[in-house]
Amino acid sequence: LMATQAPVLIAPAMNIHMYENPILQENLRKLRRVGYEILEPGEGYLACGYEGKGRLPDPEAILDQIRWQLKKKDLTNEKLVVTAGPSREPLDPIRYISNRSSGKMGYALARAAARRGAEVVLISGPTALMAPPGVKLTAVNTAAEMRQAILDEYATCTGVVMAAAVADYHPAQFSADKIKRGTGSLQVRLEPNPDILKELGQRKDGKLLIGFAAETGNLEANAEKKLREKNLDMIVANDVTREGGGFDGDTNIATIIDRRGATRSLPLMSKDELADHIFDHLLTLRR
Length: 287
Ligand code: C5P
Known about the structure:
Number of helices: 8
Distance between the termini: 38 Å
Shape: globular
Strand content: 15-25%
Bound molecules: cytidine-5'-monophosphate
Helix content: 25-40%
Radius of gyration: 21 Å
Structural class: alpha/beta
Strand order of the largest sheet: 9-8-5-10-13-14-16-17
Low-confidence stretches: none
């Protein structure tokens, strides 16, 4: 197995306590880090007589995973900067202002792009997620740090996918000491953050720029306006009030709008699937 140049998929199946053993989990993490794909076992009756996580997934699920892993390498000419997660704007050493964002959409995009052969730099705010194999991860906190990390890669990239939920404001003042509770109300003055994507749109230089628009109404009109204002090539709009299309989950319901005015409304699907649709659309723009 170690000698093969082919992609490798491992489907572990065993007793639940063996599977949960920290030594085994550490070994799985090690394998993931070097690029092996691991298919999580299913839950249910185990051959040893226990109930729990450890069942070999259904053959259909294994086949699906193999098909996905063998997907065409059609992004080998791209170096993509993908941003993910929230930004965190500190008030004091303990508190910060942030946005709701799990980072799952951005990580799914980074994973799909890397699997399809792109060189990927993932610039991520704080999340609970692990960097996908083959992706260079740069961890940031504030919008200003995210902006700088993007600019450091901008000259050499072919496109930017801006899935991060960047805070629009940061506290005007950072208190080096913890702000103590008082009796009256507390006012915090906020200063605007740079609109990173808009800035990139002003110096486009042949790069493809993809933005996201999380909206609570007037989806297409708002998204289209952002596409024009920020000089983007594509915007992925989703209505966060719809079931299955909000934050934190593994699914999304999105509408893709591009600079030519083409609009594509996609049904509910996993964030991994949506990532592939977004890159399929990117390739139509390249052509
Ligand atoms: O916040 P807004 O809805 O305008 O975000 C649309 C797009 O702009 C998103 O892709 C987001 O990542 C990006 N953005 C940014 N810098 C900001 C705010 C948003 O790049 N300060």
